[in-house]
Write a structure and sequence with these properties.
The chain is mostly helical. The protein has 14 helices and no strands. The chain starts with 15 loop residues before the first helix and ends in a 13-residue tail after the last helix.
Length: 349
């Protein structure tokens, strides 16, 4: 007879049909996701290295030629003007009148990220305060997880802006473009969806953000505001900051696992423990045993509800949900049996 134990995420066995379907795929979804993100960084590193070589050979002559090919192209004047003004960060509304809205997309991504940080931080602090009053461990609500995603575009922008400001103070701002920092910060949108079940959005945002960065770079050279080296350097440094923020500073994959565990496996284990305690108590005190079992079923219901919420868009918890349904249905049948026979509860070992 099967003997279920307290479980953690890796211990959940997939249904046979799903396991067969997954044969031939790389083991460990997290490794595949990380490899995809790492591959994008390797590609960016190669492009940066090749571009850097072009910029330094012949004493920068090729850098000047590449920059001049865009700057001297009058067909690009309109594109250059489209990406010139900041519409929000400088509180300058002239761009609205001229419809020069190029930087608005990057600015909005950063502003929305900042708003998510504030909202999610407030939600998390509210849960911590409530848990302290109720003398229990805090269980962060869904909105609290947006805290790390909000920082994804914000932190690289702040660091990149700090680098630009330092170079400006040193009279070397020509080496770095704040416009490219804003544009490249939008690459974090793809990373925000790379670990979810909505991977199509990760691909869409990846292509959209790369297109936006390229257009911003061409526009800055066309406007004569930055040369090719500055565009290349500022965009690569910002993208490296995005990757560093995702994997090291925030450790989004690891935090996602902790978040899932807190909302699903923790209440499951609490509920399963109550079921075992109820099984042991039924023989001597039926009322107390049934009360403990009922409390355990309530915990399992919470775990299942949270798992279904996560399962929609974020992570595949189908096996976990099936496990909860199996235990709940078995226990429900046992509770209906009269008289209650503790030997019939051998499934809960």
């Amino acid at each position: 007879m099967e003997e279920p134990q307290f479980i953690d995420e890796p211990a959940i066995a997939e249904p046979k049909a799903r396991a067969i379907k997954r044969l031939g795929k790389p083991a460990g979804g997290k490794k595949a996701k990380m490899s995809g993100a790492a591959l994008s960084f390797v590609i960016a590193l190669i492009v940066f290295a090749l571009g850097l070589v072009l910029c330094v050979i012949e004493d920068g002559a090729l850098n000047a030629q590449i920059t001049g090919s865009f700057k001297d192209n009058t067909d690009l004047d309109q594109l250059g003007g489209f990406f010139v003004p900041f519409l929000v960060f400088t509180i300058d509304f002239t761009g609205w009148a001229t419809t020069a809205l190029g930087t608005l997309f990057g600015e909005l991504a950063i502003i929305i990220g900042a708003v998510l940080v504030i909202i999610s931080f407030a939600a998390g602090q509210g849960e911590i305060g409530k848990a302290t009053k109720e003398n229990r461990k805090p269980v962060m609500p869904s909105s609290a997880k947006l805290y790390k995603y909000g920082w994804l575009p914000v932190l690289p922008f702040l660091i990149g802006a700090g680098i630009w400001l330092l170079l400006w103070l040193l009279g070397m701002s020509d080496l770095f473009s704040i416009h490219m920092v804003i544009a490249t910060s939008t690459t974090s949108l793809a990373l925000a969806y790379i670990g979810s079940r909505m991977k199509a959005l990760a691909i869409v945002f990846a292509f959209a953000s790369v297109f936006y960065v390229v257009m911003m770079g061409i526009a800055r050279m066309a406007a004569g505001a930055s040369d090719f080296l500055a565009v290349l350097l500022s965009s690569f440094v910002t993208f490296a900051l995005v990757m560093f923020t995702y994997f090291s500073v925030l450790d989004v994959p690891g935090q996602e696992m902790i978040f899932r565990h807190q909302r699903t496996y923790s209440p499951f284990n609490d509920g399963y423990r109550l079921l075992l305690e109820g099984r042991a108590a039924i023989k001597e005190n039926k009322a107390e045993g049934v009360k403990s079992v009922s409390a355990g079923l309530e915990k399992l219901a919470v775990a299942k509800a949270n798992a279904e919420d996560i399962n929609k868009y974020q992570h595949n918890l189908g096996a976990f949900i099936a496990r909860v349904d199996d235990i709940t249905s078995r226990v429900g049948i046992l509770l209906q049996q009269q008289p209650i026979d503790p030997k019939g509860w051998s499934y809960l070992c």
